[in-house]
């Protein structure tokens, strides 16, 4: 009986000792895993390596970041900066003075026209001018007679009516001559123009030439087109879900889709549409930009609209490593002296949560494992990533 008791006690102690040893082994194993993971996530560099890799240290800072709203559209022109040149009367082209792409100033001659109708119109004006002068004198004479002779009053009234009629006719013909560029005063002095000239009403560039020498043209037939790109603007399409985020004065960055390696241009919203396109479910946004000879009417653009500016914690984009679904930075640990000549610095891979990004900055969200005093690598992070990869390879 006593032997059985002793055996049970010995067995119990053996089991307890075994459990204690197992717990210690598990703890040691976890510690080894943590140490190994820490080693995997750390890179040690000498000061010479840091200098050669041009590694720079920075800190979290506060800056203003905006929500980016994507949009696309075209470069357009105000209605008055795009002009179609045409003849008011049937005529023949005498000469075309410009070619497509030519720069012109307001008043420059573009094309000359001729037709017998132009001569006939001037003759009609001369006749009306002659009748106008005759009736003007006759009216003055009849005015004197009617003042002294009641019987002459009726004649005076008839002359007055004829005078007003010819005056109206004369003024109308003068306006017609003015519309085709002929000075009515010169015509009244006996000068007849067989050729008329169409001039540019704006300063700009000739974009279309459809007429040629000797061509017979009809009224309102377009001959040339002149545009002025100096007042070009963006016409963007913004989806209805973003309407409440758009307002005048907001900054816009845009690129021209057809440009290879297009530079970024800046604009500012000056008009927000209030009509929804029921097909595309978008509204029109207009933005102005500084004149640039590269930005011409009709170019397709892709734009970023900056909305809801907010002050947040940020780091430069160069500080963030984006690796599949993970984002992390390298944080410098305390520098340790290993000898009198060599100083090594340790950098630890640290996960971060990121938010919006623009203007070369990335928002760092609350809950990230860095604080305002953390020494963060803001230049040279990719070098540390490559060194970290070497360390992982050595462990394998």
From TrEMBL:
Top-level taxon of the source organism: Bacteria
InterPro entries: MFP_Cation_Efflux, RND_pump_MFP
Coiled-coil features, chain-numbered ranges: 118-145
GO cellular component: cell envelope; membrane
Keywords from the UniProt entry: Coiled coil, Transport
GO function term, MF aspect, one: transmembrane transporter activity
GO biological process: copper ion export; plasma membrane copper ion transport
Family assignment from sequence similarity: Belongs to the membrane fusion protein (MFP) (TC 8.A.1) family.
Name of this chain's protein: Membrane fusion protein, cobalt-zinc-cadmium efflux system
């Amino acid at each position: 009986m006593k032997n059985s008791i002793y055996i049970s006690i010995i067995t119990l102690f053996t089991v307890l000792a075994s459990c204690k040893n197992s717990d210690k082994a598990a703890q040691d194993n976890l510690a080894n895993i943590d140490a190994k993971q820490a080693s995997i996530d750390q890179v040690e560099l000498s000061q010479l390596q840091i200098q050669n890799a041009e590694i720079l240290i920075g800190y979290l800072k506060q800056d203003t970041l905006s929500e980016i709203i994507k949009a696309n559209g075209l470069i357009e022109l105000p209605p008055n900066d795009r002009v179609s040149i045409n003849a008011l009367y049937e005529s023949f082209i005498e000469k075309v003075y410009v070619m497509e792409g030519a720069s012109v100033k307001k008043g420059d001659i573009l094309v000359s026209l001729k037709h017998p109708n132009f001569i006939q119109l001037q003759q009609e004006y001369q006749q009306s001018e002659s009748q106008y002068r005759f009736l003007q004198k006759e009216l003055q004479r009849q005015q004197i007679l009617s003042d002294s002779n009641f019987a002459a009053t009726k004649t005076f009234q008839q002359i007055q009516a004829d005078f007003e009629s010819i005056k109206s006719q004369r003024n109308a013909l003068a306006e017609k001559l003015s519309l085709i560029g002929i000075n009515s005063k010169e015509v009244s002095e006996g000068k007849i123009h067989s050729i008329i000239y169409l001039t540019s009403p704006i300063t700009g560039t000739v974009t279309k030439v459809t007429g040629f020498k000797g061509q017979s043209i009809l009224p309102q037939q377009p001959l040339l087109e002149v545009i002025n790109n100096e007042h070009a603007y963006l016409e963007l399409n913004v989806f209805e879900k973003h309407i409440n985020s758009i307002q005048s004065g907001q900054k816009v960055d845009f690129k021209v889709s057809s440009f290879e390696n297009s530079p970024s241009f800046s604009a500012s919203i000056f008009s927000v549409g209030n009509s929804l396109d029921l097909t595309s479910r978008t509204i029109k946004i207009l933005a102005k930009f500084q004149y640039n000879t590269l930005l011409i009417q009709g170019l397709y653009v892709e734009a970023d609209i900056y909305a809801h500016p907010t002050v947040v914690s940020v780091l430069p984009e160069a500080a963030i490593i984006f690796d599949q679904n993970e984002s992390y930075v390298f944080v410098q640990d305390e520098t340790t002296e290993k000898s009198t000549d060599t100083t090594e610095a340790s950098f630890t891979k640290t996960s971060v949560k990121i938010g919006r990004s623009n203007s070369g900055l990335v928002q760092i969200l609350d809950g990230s494992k860095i604080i305002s005093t953390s020494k963060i690598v803001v230049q040279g992070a990719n070098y540390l990533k490559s060194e970290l990869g070497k360390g992982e390879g050595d462990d394998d």
